[in-house]
Specification:
Layout lengths: L8 H5 L18 E8 L11 H6 L1 H7 L6 E8 L4 H8 L5 E5 H13 L4 E10 L5 E5 L15 E4 L4 H12 L9 E4 L2 H10 L4 E5 L2 H7 L4 E5 L7 E8 H6 L1 H20 L1 H12 L3 H8 L6 E2 L5 H16 L8 H4 L3 H7 L2 H7 L7 E5 L6 E3 L2 H10 L4 E7 L6 E3 L4 E5 L2 E5 L2 H10 L4 E3 L1 H8 L1
Parallel strand pairs: 1-2, 1-3, 6-7, 6-8
Antiparallel strand pairs: 3-10, 4-10, 4-11, 5-8, 5-9, 12-13, 12-14, 14-15, 16-17, 16-18
Helix pairs in contact: 3-10, 4-5, 5-13, 10-11, 10-15, 11-12, 17-19
């Protein structure tokens, strides 16, 4: 399994009693305390602090175990992006929120600016190479590389991690991200519609939009964010005054998050189905990102490489005039998750994700099947064409998981190699004599 940094022993750890929480109400006075959690149901790399956690009821169970004289109520508030969560947090109306790395920096900046400081207290899902963001084009688009975007209209959400990927990718391709393309600042759903209508030539977005549009046949990948080789992640932020007033409540949340992470690790298919049911997203798309070998790894530990990436992100937001300087070290506060996870925390800090594997989800099956090579997966698919719900393969260069039937396939002798984007496939072909891009149907035939 891919996500084993969070061991099953956390389920036992999470049942240990918590100390009484602070606050103006006195323990034993019978008062009701409402804890407000802001989350993004369709930003599925936050599910262990949002959609999945809510469906499992683990936070409520942890609060009921406090036995400090209070009655606890959880108010779950679902938002499309991190911006309104930040607005509500700085207004004192949301206690705990989850969002992506760039919105987290804006959360830190706004909190400090308004005298309502917030802190990054844990991580939900991450990809150490940056595979959570993807640039896609229309299915019939003639665009095949980043350089083809010069002078084109590209939809993204300014201030999001997907915008950060776009800016950095364009810069690497020698294109000025401010003048070389016409950037459309749009919410993901609006951008998806613009791509379908032809009013945008490309779309740069975060999980799960690229995978969803590709799965639906409404887009194809142009650029895999993992080519940047820079971590992207989502995390949990909490108001400083809330954390100080009710530390045991925050620790209860983080223990519940660890339980939800362990559940996702141990039941990846069921977890994907639960999230799909709650969000309306296809389970196959949820599994692409959150599955046993998915693009995202889930681990609450605030890893040093993620903090370092956050520091590098500040310059992108400053250039866009969305923030000034952000003191990332002051924003990060892992004392609560350290206490919640106990001795396992140190191991999680240094744990690294296992390489992605080729995986098939058979129809009417509660478990998936993994294969040593993409060619072996193709051979299985060729023999069970009517019995496949979804098939996933890792990019031969970046390791990013993608749908097998949507990947760009290269035949190199007896090897069959999948790629997320055409540009990386062509780069491989250019350095391997005799290798060539082949259609998916031919790849299946070769494998069988």
């Amino acid at each position: 399994m891919k996500h084993k940094p969070v061991a099953a022993t956390l389920l036992l750890l999470s049942l240990l009693p918590l100390t009484a929480c602070g606050g103006s109400a006195q323990a034993g006075d019978g008062s009701t305390v409402t804890v407000t959690v802001g989350y993004q149901s369709k930003t599925i790399n936050t599910v262990t602090a949002g959609t999945l956690l809510r469906s499992l009821g683990y936070f409520e169970k942890q609060l009921n175990a406090l036995h400090d004289g209070h009655t606890y109520k959880v108010d779950w508030q679902d938002y499309a992006t991190g911006a309104p969560i930040t607005a509500q947090m700085t207004a004192g109306k949301i206690d705990i929120g989850s969002m992506g790395d760039f919105p987290l920096l804006i959360n830190a900046a706004r909190g400090k600016q308004l005298g309502k400081p917030t802190h990054l207290v844990s991580v939900t899902g991450y990809n150490l190479r940056g595979g959570l963001n993807t640039i896609v084009t229309a299915p019939d688009s003639k665009l095949t590389s980043l350089t083809d975007l010069k002078g084109k209209k590209v939809s993204t959400s300014i201030g999001s991690a997907a915008d950060g990927t776009l800016v950095r990718a364009l810069q690497q391709a020698g294109i000025d991200p401010d003048k070389g393309v016409e950037k459309l600042n749009q919410q993901p759903a609006v951008g998806a519609s613009a791509l379908s209508a032809g009013s945008a030539d490309a779309l740069s977005q975060f999980v799960a939009w690229p995978g969803l549009l590709v799965f639906q046949g409404k887009a194809k990948a142009l650029y895999d964010g993992a080519e940047l080789d820079l971590p992207t992640f989502h995390g949990v932020t909490a108001r400083e005054d809330f954390a100080k007033k009710r530390p045991a409540v925050l620790e209860a949340f983080l223990k519940a998050q660890a339980e939800a992470t362990a559940y996702l690790d141990d039941h990846p298919v069921t977890a994907a189905e639960k999230v799909a049911s709650a969000t309306g997203l296809p389970a196959e798309v949820v599994y692409l990102y959150n599955g046993a070998h998915g693009i995202s790894t889930f681990d609450p530990a605030v890893k040093p490489q993620l903090v370092d990436a956050l520091k590098k992100d500040v310059s992108v937001l400053k250039a866009a005039k969305l923030t000034g300087d952000v003191d990332v070290d002051a924003f990060v506060d892992d004392q609560y998750v350290k206490k919640a996870l106990g001795s396992s925390y140190a191991k999680q800090l240094t744990a690294t994700p296992a390489p992605a594997a080729s995986e098939v989800w058979p129809k009417d099956a509660e478990k998936t099947r993994t294969f040593e090579t993409p060619a072996e997966l193709l051979a299985y698919v060729a023999q069970h064409k009517d019995g496949i719900r979804a098939a996933y393969v890792p990019d031969a260069t970046t390791g990013t998981l993608w749908f097998a039937d949507k990947a760009v396939w290269v035949a190199d002798g007896k090897d069959l190699l999948p790629f997320v984007a055409p540009e990386t496939a062509q780069a491989y072909v250019g350095t391997h004599g005799g290798a060539r891009v082949v259609p998916y149907a031919e790849a299946l035939e070769r494998a069988s």
